[in-house]
Each structure stands twice: as C-alpha cells, then as structure tokens.
Amino acid sequence: MILARGGSGDMSVLYRAFRGRDPVVEPLLEDRGLVAGRRGR
Q: Does the pTM exceed 0.85?
C-alpha cells in the first residue's frame, strides 16, 4: 500500500514504483488554464 510508505523514501522513486512512470503535470496545468492546451480553451 502506497500510504504505508509515506516519508520512508524518495517520493519520485515511490511514485515510479506505484505508477510505473514519471509524473506528468501538463494535463493539470492545461486544465487550470496555466498553459495553452489541446482542448482549445
């Protein structure tokens, strides 16, 4: 369980182990209108 590992290691390593990839922030930024996105907002 990912919550049980909190504070016990590097967060980027734990995230990659849990999700199997690096985090992607672009969809969040696009949704909040902070970068031009593909949605045409």
A: no
